[in-house]
Design a protein that fits this description.
Elements (H helix, E strand, L loop, with lengths): L7 H9 L21 H4 L2 E4 L4 E8 L2 E9 L1 H13 L5 E5 L11 H5 L5 E6 L2 E7 L7 E5 L2 E2 L21 E5 L13 E6 L10 E12 L11 E13 L4 E13 L2 E6 L4 E4 L16 E4 L2 E25 L2 E24 L6 E8 L2 E8 L7 E25 L4 E25 L15 E7 L2 E7 L11 E27 L5 E19 L2 E4 L11 E2 L5 E4 L11 E4 L1 H8 L17 E2 L16 E20 L2 E23 L11 E2 L5 E2 L2 E24 L2 E12 L11 E4 L4 E5 L9 E14 L2 E21 L14 E3 L6 E3 L1 E27 L11 E11 L2 E4 L6 E4 L6 E11 L2 E10 L2 E4 L7 E4 L2 E11 L4 E8 L6 E4 L6 E6 L3 E9 L1
Parallel strand pairs: 1-3, 7-10, 39-44
Antiparallel strand pairs: 2-3, 4-9, 5-6, 7-8, 9-10, 11-12, 11-56, 12-13, 13-17, 14-17, 14-55, 15-16, 17-18, 18-21, 19-20, 20-23, 21-22, 22-25, 23-24, 25-26, 25-27, 25-28, 26-32, 29-30, 31-35, 32-33, 33-36, 34-35, 36-37, 37-40, 38-39, 40-41, 41-44, 42-43, 44-45, 45-48, 46-47, 48-49, 49-52, 50-51, ...
Helix pairs in contact: 1-3
Length: 981
């Protein structure tokens, strides 16, 4: 007598920690045990409710205990089932019914998986890191189609994808030839539902939750309450040949934070005659680095996300399916940032009682002098961000013969971000009621950083910060920044099944995509934030347009300040509309000003441009299904060819020379510049990406996976945008610079994965090791004797000396640009995942389970940073050596509860609220809690707390003594219900 082999869902059920499925002994020949029978495969039923029940069903005269797994447990079971039978090294999330995933966004959901962590922005997970690599190395698809982003780069902002509208997600840590290229760290595949695949004829789900933030009452003007609401429907019609699915999800949540921001050490100062005592710089007693200053802010506002999903699926005959689907997300944020900004005054600042960390000044008393600009600015920022994400696709799947399958897919993915940063700076006047107000230059600021705790501060003008008779608005500015990104793609795939003992099938296909990215930047300003302007004088505040704001909680020792109602203020000052002169970005020569402004400005188009990217790829892949030495082996091997043609628009400064292409180019407000010539520059390249995935089933319950591949990630698309500037000096030397570079090449890596998976009666264990060797990273270098003409620059062969009139031959000088030059290196690590069910406990405790994962990652890749003054090394952005995720859950008779914790130790990422400023972040532990109760088969209630311990975000420059951002978000409480029918 033989025991039957556990079914797929049985094993997944045990590994997910729900319960043990007991199947009686079945008389069966050994060769019939190889695959689960049809009867066995349906022995476990799953539904969308919140408990585990058992009954006994007779199938073909054999008793099979049927266990119904519901709610959160169902997604765990389906996830592990998908992972076990995947043909790559992957992690899986699944929720067959829309609305089943409980997380606010897919960013939160993905962080439950091994080796995956998140960077929190505004308290919410947004960008994810995979195996110690930042979001720029993560490629993302929706229903198998490339997704573009509102981030202005290639990094997807997963908080724009409501979990209620996503049915499953996969993180492919090893690629295969049929997957779209682009992820050195990994590929995240999100999927919406396939309505014809639903087990139910019709289903309708409603989720409604109210939310509350417990720090909102500390921030004047912040919203305390928000809500989540979602509807979804799936149905099958016309004898199951037509399927329809629609979904809508709305999130309206308060955005709350209180933060201290230390600014970078961007200036230095020589000190003559300073004694090298215990408080002085340790490396050079006559040299020190000075921070730009710091900010203390209240943040508040509302984030509103509306998500829409629709799919229609038609199968008129058994061998043909046509599906059209759409996904749209509208994520709008209107937020304020209020408080004050301290500017220390640069190298000419007068500093008493200095305190140092290394050579960097971390404390002292700063006094304004005639040579320094030391000041305190009262800030009232008004930020608006309107993001749009659209994804549309049509897919036809045709089983031409028993062996040949053809799949055709056409898609469009687009994203747009319209960000407007409005700033209102106020400074202290001697008397704001005077006919000609005078800037109060009696400024003294004392401070001492306390590492990852709030600093000690003192201001001699503290009482004036909240005095409407002392504070005046000295500058107002609006900074629009619009990104648009769109990719059209066409894909054709074939699969042909073989009658072969080694190769079960062959897949091959091709894909063409056409991507266009654009960014547009404008600047509108009035006044001067460093002093009072005579031509655009300071603006008087009145009591009806201001409110005195006190700090609360940990920040209560900071002095109060004036919050300004921007609408009242601007309407009072500018009843005919706000004047909009354009402030300096560069040289103003050759500018025609049709509006008659006298302000020194240049031209916003220099900050704008377009990128074009065409990709043609093709692949061939063989699927393996064989045995070696009695061990079943499955997997695939293949190669993907990728041909890329990338280019970007450029504006080259030709000093108005018409023969070199100079044109009259106008920006969006009519400012005309005559200095520049339009060009289009770029590069083409072809890559071959081989891959192999092998799965060795060493026993019925355990398997070993091996994978190897060459992978690539293209550079951030905004780094390809043109911002070239080149000029000729009076002696004829040509010099130029570019923050970006349309000639940047991808990041390449060779990677290897080895993993072991073991499934047992009461759980599962998975161990994996990986190794990546990355060729290079982007760096900024200065290239001397650069061949400007040979590289497509429109430069003159000579210039005319203005005094002598003689011709001076031009010579090549230095060109500073971004290149793939930073030294690469390895990334390697270990991942462990363990699930345990406590089946031996009494019945009331049989729903108790535990799931945990741990990953260790290290890399030899380092970069140099000077943001903290002293030169220091930084790890690879996104890398935490240790990442831990754990969930303890319990379910019984309709009640379910769980507590989840996510820990990552210190890592490197962009500074919160400061773009393109990469700093060190302290480790953090985020704990979430959830409880639910199923009242009836259709109605359930839920309570949830996110960030249970109010974990802040803390960063620093090189050493913890040089404080970066200390940001406190508060806890979020949710209470609501789910109704399904």
């Amino acid at each position: 007598m033989l025991k039957s082999k556990p079914t797929v869902l049985t094993l997944a059920l045990a590994a997910a920690g729900m319960s043990v499925l007991l199947i009686p002994q079945i008389s069966q020949a050994a060769d019939e045990v190889k695959q689960p029978t049809a009867e066995q495969s349906v022995a476990v039923e799953t539904t969308e409710q919140n408990s585990t029940q058992a009954d006994t069903t007779i199938t073909d005269d054999l008793p099979i205990e049927r266990i119904q797994v519901k709610g959160y447990s169902r997604s765990l079971i389906d996830s592990l089932n998908s992972k076990r039978y995947s043909d790559t090294v992957s992690e899986q999330l699944s929720a067959d019914d829309l609305g089943a995933l409980p997380d606010v966004s897919m960013a939160d959901a993905l962080t439950r998986l091994p080796g995956i962590s998140a960077v929190r922005t505004g308290g919410q997970a947004a960008e994810i890191n995979i195996r110690g690599m930042s979001g720029g190395f993560v490629f993302s698809t929706l229903n198998g189609r490339e997704q573009v982003s509102t981030s202005g780069s290639r990094s997807i902002e997963f908080d724009q994808y409501p979990s209620e509208l996503i049915s499953s997600a996969a993180v492919y840590k090893s690629p295969k030839a049929s997957l779209i290229e682009g992820g050195v760290a990994g590929t995240v595949e999100l999927s919406t539902v396939s309505p014809l695949s639903s087990d139910k004829q019709h289903s309708f789900v409603v989720n409604a939750r109210g939310m509350y933030n417990d720090r909102a009452n500390e921030v004047y003007g912040a919203e305390e309450y928000g809500s989540r609401l979602s509807f979804s429907y799936q149905g099958k019609f016309l004898e199951d040949t037509l399927g329809v699915a629609v979904g809508y999800a709305r999130l309206e949540q308060p955005s709350v934070a209180t933060q201290f921001i230390g600014l970078a050490y961007n200036d230095s100062k020589e000190l003559d005659g300073l004694e090298n005592d215990t408080n002085g710089p340790v490396d050079n007693p006559n040299y020190e680095y000075i921070s730009e200053g710091f900010e203390v802010q209240h943040l508040g506002g509302v984030e509103t996300r509306n998500g829409y999903m629709g799919a229609i699926e038609w199968a008129p005959v058994d061998n043909f399916v046509l599906k059209a689907d759409a996904f749209m997300s509208r994520f709008d944020s209107e937020a304020f940032a209020r408080g004050y900004r301290v500017k220390f005054g640069g190298r000419n600042a007068s500093v008493a009682n200095p305190t140092y960390d290394g050579n960097s000044l971390i404390g002292g008393t700063f006094n304004r002098t005639s040579k320094s600009y030391t000041r305190v600015e009262i800030v009232n920022d008004d930020n608006q961000d309107f993001d749009e994400v659209n994804s549309y696709g049509i897919n036809a799947d045709w089983q031409v013969t028993d062996r040949l399958n053809v799949n055709v897919d056409v898609s469009l993915s687009s994203a747009k971000s319209d960000f407007r940063n409005g700033l209102l700076w106020s400074n202290v006047a001697v008397d704001a009621n005077a006919d000609t107000p005078i800037f109060d230059e009696n400024v003294s600021v004392s401070y001492l950083l306390n590492g990852l705790d709030l600093p000690d501060v003192g201001f001699n003008q503290a009482e004036a910060f909240s005095d409407v008779d002392r504070v005046m608005v000295s500058k107002y500015g609006i900074y629009p920044f619009v990104n648009e990104d769109e990719v059209q793609a066409y894909r054709l795939d074939f699969k042909y099944d073989l009658d072969n003992d080694v190769i079960s099938s062959v897949e091959f296909g091709a894909r063409y995509s056409d991507r266009t990215y654009s960014n547009d930047r404008s600047v509108f300003e009035y006044g001067n934030d460093g002093a009072f302007s005579k031509s655009e004088p300071p603006l008087k505040l009145t009591e009806d347009m201001t409110t005195v704001v006190d700090w609360q909680g940990d920040f209560s020792y900071f002095p109060a300040y004036l919050a300004v109602d921007l609408d009242k203020a601007l309407n009072a000052w500018f009843p005919d509309g706000v004047p909009q002169p354009v402030q300096t970005w560069g040289n103003a020569g050759g500018v025609i000003d049709p509006k008659g402004y006298t302000t020194n400005y240049s031209w916003s188009v220099l900050q704008s441009g377009d990128v074009y990217e065409e990709v043609l790829s093709a692949y061939v892949m063989a699927n393996i299904d064989t045995e070696l030495g009695g061990i079943p082996i499955t997997g695939n091997f293949g190669v993907r060819m990728v041909d890329t043609d990338q280019s970007a628009t450029m504006l080259q400064n030709v000093e108005g020379d018409v023969e070199l292409g100079a044109q009259n180019i106008a920006d969006e407000i009519g400012i005309i510049n005559q200095n520049y010539a339009r060009t289009l520059q770029g590069v083409s390249y072809t890559d071959y990406l081989p891959s192999v995935n092998l799965n060795f089933k060493i026993t019925d319950d355990s398997q070993i996976r091996f994978a190897a591949a060459k992978v690539m990630s293209r550079p951030p698309i905004n780094r390809l945008a043109g911002d070239i500037s080149a000029s000729v000096s009076d002696d004829g030397e040509i010099n130029g610079s570019s923050t970006n570079n349309p000639f940047l090449m991808p990041f390449y890596a060779d990677q290897y994965d080895l993993s072991y998976e073991r499934y047992f009666d009461e759980g599962a264990f998975v161990a994996a090791v990986f190794y990546k060797n990355i060729d290079s990273f982007i760096d900024t270098i200065a290239i001397e004797n650069f061949d400007f003409k040979g590289n497509g620059f429109n430069v003159p062969e000579y210039i005319i000396d203005e005094i002598s009139g003689e011709q001076i031959a031009t010579t090549n000088g230095t060109y500073t640009t971004a290149v793939n030059n930073a030294e690469g290196g390895y990334i390697r690590g270990l991942e462990l995942a363990y699930t345990q069910v406590f089946a031996s406990l009494p019945d009331a405790w049989s729903g108790l389970g535990f799931n945990a994962s741990y990953s260790y990652t290290e890399s030899e890749v380092e970069s140099i940073t000077n943001l903290g003054g002293d030169t220091a090394t930084q790890d690879l952005p996104g890398l935490s050596n240790n990442v831990v995720s754990a969930t303890l859950f319990y379910a019984y008779e309709g009640f379910e509860t769980r507590v989840s914790a996510r820990y990552r130790d210190e890592f490197v990422s962009e500074q919160v609220a400061i773009n393109e400023q990469v700093v060190n972040f302290d480790g953090e532990t985020v704990i979430d809690y959830q409880a639910s109760y199923q009242i009836t088969d259709g109605l359930g209630v839920l309570f949830q707390v996110n960030n249970l311990t109010d974990e802040p975000t803390k960063s620093y420059f090189g050493t913890e003594a040089k404080t970066g951002t200390l940001q406190y978000f508060g806890r979020e409480f949710f209470l609501g219900f789910t109704y399904a029918m």
